[in-house]
Amino acid sequence: MRTNIIMMLLERFFLGKRRWPRLSSLTVLAVIGSFLLWRNDVIPHDILNQLSLENTTTAARKAITGGEAFEFAPGLPQRNGDGMPLQRKGYVTCYNTSTLQPDWVAWRLTAGHCEGSAKRDGKKFTEDLSVPSPRADTYDYSRSGYDRGHMCPAADNRWSHEAMEQSFLMTNICPQNQELNRGDWNEIEQQCRIWAKEYGKVYIVCGPIFLRGHHKRIGKHRVPVPDAFFKVVLRLTPEPRGIGFICRNTDGSHPKDFYVNTLHEVERVTGYTFLPKLDPKTAAIVKSSNSLKDWRFTPTRYYKNR
Questions:
Q1: How high is the pLDDT of residue 302?
Q2: SS3 state of residue 187
Q3: What is residue 34's DSSP assignment?
Q4: What are the CA-CA distances from residue 8 to residues 18, 24, 26, 29, 35 (Å)?
Q5: N or C: which terminal CB in the chain sees fewer CB atoms within 10 Å?
Q6: Is residue 17 part of a domain?
Q7: Residue 60 maps to a domain
Q8: What pLDDT, on a 0 to 100 scale, did the predictor assign at position 299?
């Protein structure tokens, strides 16, 4: 109702019998469009490109994201040349305008986040209008042979209907091999939820890996297909420990420990610095160990709780 009133006033202001010169209908539409974008909290990408969530104050983060500052105690990934940080209800994503997909997605997963009434049934993948054109849409993936692979899983957002909806934004999606997405990657996601319940809280960062060379592209917008995916997981209790995974974006089925790496190794492959707010002594311990004895691995079933 308020939007209709504002649009009417704008029209009367520009086209009515006033002393201001008449303007074209395109100008009026541009003004109205700008207002509607503002109403929907779309953040101009040139502002976002100048700012980093890691290097701004709490007040500035709220201004960037249009919401509360995202709580990610160990610090968001750092790397020169990163793209556009976007805050959602349940995660932060750093969107890349060249690959049309996230560089990384980070979220805090608690035991409570793994439960709730929000379901993925009936949810549709949605083009993210808060990023500049060209941008990927769900049709780029149609008949491509690749899944619309969630980075922050839908099942990690059952605690909030808004968070569940936002997990289907295309800025949280990458082209993912179907067997990987529905098999081993899904098992790793389930394992993270088990850890969240066991340890109370874990911090997760994941994203695509593009190695040098030619990449297959899909869809009208020619979205590049990643060579692999990474995931790093941190727990702080009962003692700080970290674990990393690197999964080739190909067919195949392996035990979860097949993909395990140290965080140092994931940093080497991706070029990111993970968990920059940890004190150096803790970071050294967390990033150097990949002992499976530090983590309880639980057998899981494919296709369950995706």
A1: 43
A2: helix
A3: H
A4: 15, 16, 16, 12, 12
A5: N
A6: no
A7: no
A8: 65
Instruction: Give the residue ranges of the chain where pLDDT is below 70.
Output: 1-70, 82, 299-306
Q: pLDDT for 133-152, tens place per residue? A: 999 999 999 999 999 999 99
Q: What tokens were used for 127?
A: 């083009």
> What pLDDT, on the 0 to 100 scale, is given for residue 52?
38
Report phi then psi at 106, rounded to 5: -125, 140
Instruction: Supply the range of the domain harboring residue 289.
Output: 65-294
Residue type at position 107: W
Element (H, E) at 217: strand 217-218
**What token pair was written down for 137?**
């849409």
Residue 163 makes CB contacts below 8 A (sequence gap 6+) with: 88, 89, 90, 118, 157
Which of 113, 150, 215, 264 is catalytic? The answer is 150
Structure tokens at 6: 């504002």
Structure tokens at 120: 């993925």
CA 297 → CA 193, 230, 231, 304, distances in Å? 11, 18, 16, 17
Distance CA 11, CA 3 (A): 12
H/E element holding 87? strand 84-87
CA atoms of 249 and 267, how far apart (whole Å):
18
Q: Give me the sign of the Cα torsion angle 243, 245, 202, 183.
A: negative
The answer to whether position 13 is within a domain reads no
- Count how many domains the chain has: 1
Coil, strand or helix: which one is 60? helix
CA gap 125, 179 in Å, rounded: 20
CATH, residue 135: 3.40.570.10
Q: Is 150 a catalytic residue?
A: yes
Phi-psi label, residue 271: left if phi above 0, alpha if psi -120 to 50, beta otherwise: left
